[in-house]
Design brief:
By secondary structure, the protein is α+β, with helices and mostly antiparallel strands. It folds into two domains: 3-241, Rossmann fold (3-Layer(aba) Sandwich), CATH 3.40.50.300; 243-357, Nucleic acid-binding proteins (OB fold (Dihydrolipoamide Acetyltransferase, E2P), Beta Barrel). It has helices at residues 47-55, 97-106, 116-129, 145-157, 175-192, 203-209, 227-232, 237-242; strands at residues 3-12, 21-31, 36-40, 62-67, 70-71, 82-85, 163-167, 195-200, 212-217, 220-225, 249-256, 259-262, 265-269, 275-281, 286-288, 294-303, 307-313, 322-327, 337-342, 347-350, 356-357. Helix 2 (97-106) packs across helix 3, helix 2 packs parallel to helix 4 (145-157) and helix 3 packs across helix 4. It is elongated. The mean pLDDT is 93. The structure holds adenosine-5'-triphosphate (ATP) and magnesium ion. The site of adenosine-5'-triphosphate has 13 residues, from strand 2 and helix 1.
């Protein structure tokens, strides 16, 4: 089921003590049938609001939502055939785990009505998927946050919805379970082909799980594309900074007489008019090179097994220090300065409004 958002907008009106908030600002995008799309952005950027509108719990201020060709903007929640995992789990406290999972199936009416045994089997299958089948008789209050979260996932999956909406579904799981549940969600999604929107503020999670990623900031869509494409070609400084661990290194630079200059270093020739720029360099974008043009003060070397982190400073940097990742076999002289050459495709220039400036090789 393809999902189309057309000028989708949500303004929360002014309250007694709060100003009006535009939580989602004219979203236009299409989620192709059977794909998993991650909505990614910092806290408060409008991810949950977007999901709640797709689900039908929030009414848009403006714009439309289509499932396939059908305009469902005014269709009530219960008729949308969506499975949703809320950020706050929202389990029924008076029901057991098993009853919680069975609930969406018991609500089916008419010819869709299922027998008790089928319902129990489906519930058990969903519970097994997320490894909570041994907790079926407990009440939510007797579960940890991570266990409650998994019950919520099972409940969303059990009725095999047309659209699956997941709002930070892994936030309360420990690192290992988070990873395995993430893989499980991806597997189930691919097996069933259910169109899925997955909300997270964790860029690594978004990149690893999604077919397409939507990066948002302050209710405004910044970029939508394949995860690797966004990482390789961020449209602005915000997106460049939001993706990647360690984060991208950002420096003050300028274009002077057709050359990119960072601090005292002339980096390379560029065919651009004179201007101030921000320079983003991915941690993997620098090569230790005794003749390289980029000269840093060496602070610390962290051997991390597979690779080595070089912590250094540079007079142009916009942060406290720079982190550069090099292969562990790289030979590094123990001295005060360290020189690098740069991989041009790992370096981005941004103008004063923080939008990406196209370099020649981008064309
Ligand atoms: N019911 C509401 N009334 C007024 N403002 C709201 C309401 N719900 C959300 N907001 C505001 O809308 C903006 C977007 O909120 P939303 O919950 O969609 O963010 P989010 O991206 O899901 O954040 P998080 O990662 O913290 O869950 C925020 O500024 C929030 O304060
Ligand atoms: Mg949220």
């Amino acid at each position: 089921m393809k999902i189309v958002l057309e000028n989708l907008t949500k303004v929360f009106p002014q309250g007694k003590h709060t100003p009006a908030v535009t939580a989602v600002d004219h979203f236009n995008f299409e989620i192709p049938d059977g794909k998993l799309v991650a909505l990614l952005g910092p806290s408060g950027c409008g991810k949950s609001t977007t999901l709640n509108m797709i689900c039908g719990l929030e009414t848009p201020t403006e714009g439309k939502i289509f499932f396939g060709d059908e305009d469902i903007t005014n269709v009530p929640v219960e008729n949308r055939d969506v499975g949703m995992v809320f950020q706050s789990y929202a389990l029924y406290p008076h029901l057991t785990v098993k009853q919680n999972i069975m609930f969406p199936l018991e609500n089916k009416k008419g010819k869709e009505k299922l027998g008790k045994q089928v319902i129990e089997e489906k519930a058990m299958k969903a519970a097994k998927l997320v490894q909570i089948d041994s907790l079926m008789d407990r009440k939510p209050s007797a579960l940890s946050g991570g266990q409650q979260q998994r019950v919520a996932i099972a409940r969303a999956l059990v009725k095999q919805p047309k659209v699956l909406l997941l709002d930070e579904p892994l936030s309360n799981l420990d690192a290992r379970l988070r990873l395995s549940t993430r893989e499980e969600i991806r597997r189930i999604q691919q097996e069933t082909g259910v169109t899925t929107v997955f909300v997270t503020h964790d860029q690594e999670e978004a990149m690893s799980i999604s077919d397409l990623m939507v990066v948002m900031k302050d209710g405004v869509l910044q970029q939508m594309d394949k995860p690797q494409e966004i990482y390789d070609n961020p449209v602005n400084l915000f997106v460049a900074k939001f993706l990647g661990t360690p984060a991208i290194n950002v420096l003050h630079g300028k274009i002077e007489n057709g050359k990119l200059v960072i601090g005292k270093n002339v980096i390379f020739n560029v065919d651009l008019p004179d201007q101030n720029v921000s320079v983003g360099i991915r941690p993997e974008g620098l090569l230790v090179d005794e003749n390289g043009p980029f000269v840093c003060s060496l602070q610390k070397i962290e051997k991390l097994g597979r690779d080595t982190s070089v912590i250094c400073t540079h007079e142009g940097m916009q942060m406290d220090h720079m982190r550069i990742v090099v292969p562990s076999e790289t030979k590094i002289e123990n001295s005060d300065t360290i020189r690098f050459s740069l991989k041009p495709h790992k370096l981005y220039l941004f103008d004063e409004s923080e939008n990406r400036i196209a370099l020649e090789e981008d064309a």
